[in-house]
Batch of 4 targets.
Target 1
Amino acid sequence: MTQYFQIHPDNPQPRLIRQAAEIIDGGGIVALPTDSSYALVCRLDDKDAVDRLRRIRGVDEKHHLTLLCRDLSEIANYARVDNKQYRLLKAATPGPFTFILEATREVPRRLSHPSRKTIGLRVPENTIAQSLLEQLSQALIGTTLIPAGSDTPLNDPDEIRDSLQRQVELVIDGGSCGLEPTTVVDLTGDSPVVLRRGRGDVSLFA
């Protein structure tokens, strides 16, 4: 049975944040708002939950999932970041960007791109997402909530609950948060490459 929490977007209720964290710790998948669109998240070290998340999205292991991190210091645990990359990350985080970086050994092999050994990372500028990350004290694996066979993210919490009933353990209603996915930027080369234009301002990488 899918649970449904209405959480205040600016002042999240601590009790509900704790309950949401317990659901994730127990192997659950949660639909939550971010600064771009709604996303599906779960523990990064929970293989069963990650496999279920991929099935809901209809994507295989070649599709980059994203690590949601609290801040830049946490990103450094999962990706190799040089000084140039760090300056770009500092200018763009928190915000609606996903960065492709070389994964460290801290990232389970099944979560990085099978041929490139890269991972997508982001620091969301959303109070609910940040409160949940703080409560868990660890990064979460996530993906934009785009149903299999569609190219448009779901944005209405009631529609999300109806669409994903019994597929996810919790839907967090944090209000509308837009329909644009993140801007995806590959930082693994000599200069940034914008792979997908989304909500984030690409002029930062000109």
Target 2
Amino acid sequence: MNGKFSNPPMISVRNLVKNYGNSQALRGISFQVQRGEIFAFLGPNGAGKTTAIKILTTLLRPTAGRVEIDGLDVTIDQHAVRERLGIIFQDSSLDDQLTVLENMLYHAVLYDVPRRLRGPRIEALIEVFGLGEYRHKQVRRLSGGLKRRVEVARALIHNPKTLFLDEPTIGLDPQSRNYLWAQVKQLNEREDVTVFLTTHYMEEAERFAHRIAILDQGNIIAQGTAKDLNMQTHSDTLEDSFIALTGREIRSEDNGMIDRMRQLSQLGKRK
């Protein structure tokens, strides 16, 4: 582990199980995410990623096992855990009828940011994410890339210790993707924000994540740095390692995910 990280971990997952009737979505997975780490959580569709993320973000209760965020049990200290999290899901949660500023103010009130701190914090984030000229525009009038910037900025208003990014750049053009990642990386390095990432862009995980865990059929089948995984599978790229670990046959629940990954990877290389 890189010397920049310190114990105790920001996220600790031990023997996590989730059953839906007779179906087992998670089969006793365990992993840790260190403070200040960018951690990528990868897996084919149907692997259990969504279930795990919902449990980590207090939206779903586990069947068994223990999950702690910043030392707090997610099933007992739900409110305190949520205060420590910034969450950006794949589908936008912005109010399209409100302006950028109104969306951010609403979030600040929702998370009990003291009134005297709201304005300065919002203005600082608007500047960081290059949203100054859009502050009074309705969100519905913004491009997809700008909307993503607003979502990330809004999620940081209450100074979360951990930022969950679920497919944060899907559908964005390369320039928007690069801008967004530059800001996230800066937040990680300057403010020591822990980042928990899911993505189908393999090059994003390979480039930005300090460590990667690969989930398949409810089990973590590998974890380590991109270099570790490539060495383990004798592969040149993370995409090749992913396919080697999860299998070359596209299962019915994958809906062509491997082909989609390759298409997304090619899109990201176009300038």
Target 3
Amino acid sequence: MAKPSAAAIDAAKKIKLLLLDVDGVLTNGKLYYGNQGEELKAFDIQDGLGIKLLQKQGIQVGIITGRSSALVQRRADELGIAPVVQGREDKLTALNELLENMDITMDEIAFIGDDFPDLAVIRRVGLGITPANGTAPLAAAALWQTNRSGGDGAVREAVEMILEAQGKWQNVLAAYQ
């Protein structure tokens, strides 16, 4: 298992906001369509708990995704994720617009993305992360690549790394003992 570099751990210590892509990060990246034309997505339950744990430790979680889906908004609502920006292929512009109304700097942001539309954000934020299934250019640009794939615990792995780097992981564990 690849461990995060010292640079990734140092960057994680500053994180106040974790931003997520959806397809290929919160999901496995596959699109499922039903006979009536409905779109289906599968979300990992451990990722969801990880998001809630991160929020309980005072770290905000948001979404920036190129596609638009009612399912994404539903999952975000279930987990208390905000902001949620959908239908934005130019994710760096979307991020810059978000920052106009937030008291957060780029080095206080972690972003998890898996493919070309995520590359500019990965390069700009303090902690760029790609899941195991991220494309080679993202793996090269990210400070860290998770061992787990999108839709299969990559977000949870990133959450645990951030909380460990900030010395908050033991607080999380203590709540369940």
Target 4
Amino acid sequence: MMKKSLLALALSAGFAFSAQAADIVDTAIGAGNFKTLVAAVQAAGLVDTLKGPGPFTVFAPTDAAFAKIPKETLDGLLKDKAALTKILTYHVVAGKVMAKDVKPGMVKTVQGSDITLATTGGVTVNGAKVVAADVAADNGVIHAIDTVIMPK
């Protein structure tokens, strides 16, 4: 976990001196454990949004989290742009919220529904555990989670 956070920070610092900023998408690509999420963001047409000014807090399912979804279900979602967009935007909150600033309770997502945050024994979102917190990006922050959360 520490390596991934350091890698993301190193990427953020490196990109700060180049013409291209390390936004949420670039940071997720650089971290290396969000390949499925990045593919889903691309399939849903959300790349430009997550490269936008934000700020955003993204509760980002890792590749291992996506691996918990049956392949047929995941393949179907990747082909259903509307359903995929609904699920992905359910993982995003407006604003930049670092782990130390998370308050337990309900928070509205970009998708429009609420998620439940808890802080007992570490940060969780709808029961999914944050496995790597505070992965900084120029337009927000990523918190890696161990499960894909689904809107009701």
